[in-house]
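Troubleshooting: if your tokenizer reports a length mismatch, compare against these two reference records.
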Amino acid sequence: MVSFAISMAAGLVLLAALCPFAAVGFRNGDRPDDATVTARLRDAGQPDEPRPVVLATVRNPSPTPLLAGLSVRPARLARWLAGAHDVTVPARTARRRLRPSAYATVGVVPAYGGARFIVPVTATARHYLLTAAIGQARGRLRLHRLHLTGAISAARTELTVRFGEDLFD
């Protein structure tokens, strides 16, 4: 009787430990041909621009092209508190904040391919939130939210060329 109670308790603990993994894997009807979004924070590349830019990569494993709208804003919560990546499916898609005009960068990702987008940052902050609205085939809309931490220095760098060297060789 004691061994039965111990095995039932162990089974319940194992089930409770595996439930979050199942929820992540089956959230909102994920499919193998769903797009993936990755992002990195980069310097703007302009000597007079202290704000960084976000280099976002959208990969599309599906046989149809997709529409991507991306924007960046300062995050309210730190990455360790809010999580690194979140994918949601909005219930009402006719809202103004989901239209392409609400995003700083809009582009098309080809079928079985990928695309890189440079997304401008509107304000300087320590933590940023990239929101990517991905419109897929059959009217599927996914909102990806990625938290980025800014380790980019705003210090200006100078280009030094030794005497006798040509800058454009």
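Reference record two:
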Amino acid sequence: MGAYHIQGFARKVQESAPRGHFIEVSFDKKQQPSGEFTLYRSRDEKHVATVKAETLPGCCGVIVLHHLLLFGNNGEDALVNLIEAAAIGAQKAKYGLAVLTLLSNSTLIPELEHRGWNKSTTFLNGKTNNLVTVLHKILVQAVRPVIKRTETGGE
């Protein structure tokens, strides 16, 4: 799936831009499949937020969002909107799960939880000594197959 899948995902993210905003996509040719999404208030203005996304190696159904950045005096809602656009785009591109990490004291966590993100776990990053929270959002609900039983009780 690789590069084609992430490019299809990129188109879906662009289509999911918040009203009055534009999302630009750039790809890292060395690290396909991955992309960076930059949110603009309009095509003429400076960027307000960026997020990088890549398919989890070994599982094409999981999108990992990372390197979340907010620029200037833009409110955190811009970053939340970009994260949500990425999640909606991932869902439309048939990803089943989105994952991201934030510092545990991030003020984004309550807003993301309000929008359907769940805390998976919290851990201490031994490299930085930061307390980190892993969040996930289920994009496609699993459906269990119905197994019909015969009159004798077998399958």
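Descriptive notes for reference record two:
- The chain has one domain: 2-138.
- The domain at 2-138 is CATH 3.40.630.30 (Aminopeptidase).
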